[in-house]
Design goal:
By secondary structure, this protein is an alpha/beta fold. 50% of the residues lie in helices and 13% in strands. It has two domains: 2-41; 53-182, Hypothetical Protein Ychn, Chain: A (3-Layer(aba) Sandwich), CATH 3.40.1260. The protein has a five-stranded parallel β-sheet with strand order 4-3-2-1-5. The longest helix has 41 residues, at 7-47. The protein is globular.
């Protein structure tokens, strides 16, 4: 019964199949997009979850820990951001002795901590060493460093090189740490 299949019927059949194919492709793209958004949503929500130092100092019970995230737009900002973090740490430890603390810096300011910038930033490097001696690890972002052609070996041993700074922050939050964000002077 092939005589019923006229060119017009073939055309309609082709359009129907093309529409079905486009629907499947668009549906897949939409589902993949929604899935990706769902996967990324914790990162977005954590970025907004930062508390102030005062919010944490008002807590009655000691939190699991505190992560201080430093992310600024200038390579020289550790000169003020790291001393501020040190002040926060002192106040937090006064209220909650033995409180686990960590710092993650993953903006351009992290490059002050390279081995090649050690002489130029002696005070900052000394502060990072003293924080480490007080059981406060300072992490930088290896991914961002890689974008500038740097590797983990380009940072001194007292700087903890995390694969990705934001992921390191999220890892601390996932184990119950409270987040304080330092992003402007």
């Amino acid at each position: 019964m092939n005589f019923l299949r006229t060119p017009q019927n073939w055309s309609a059949l082709c359009h129907k199949q093309a529409a079905r194919h486009a629907f499947k492709n668009n549906t897949c793209k939409l589902l993949l997009g929604l899935f990706a958004l769902l996967l990324l949503s914790p990162a977005f929500s954590y970025a907004e979850a930062g508390k102030s130092l005062n919010d944490i100092l008002k807590l009655k019970n000691k939190p699991a820990g505190v992560i201080i995230e430093i992310v600024t737009g200038d390579e020289e900002n550790l000169e003020w951001a790291l001393p501020r973090a040190k002040e926060y740490i002192q106040q937090l430890r006064e209220k909650f002795p033995e409180l686990p603390l960590a710092i993650v810096t993953h903006g351009p300011e992290q490059f002050a901590l390279t081995e090649s910038n050690k002489q130029e930033n002696k005070e900052i490097h000394q502060l990072v060493k003293s924080l480490g001696a007080d059981d406060v690890p300072v992490h930088i972002c290896e991914t961002f460093a890689g974008w500038r052609g740097l590797a983990a070996e380009d940072f001194p041993d007292y700087v903890n090189v995390a694969a990705a700074g934001p992921a390191q922050v999220n890892d601390y939050i996932a184990i119950g740490y409270e987040l304080i964000v330092i992003d402007e002077e």
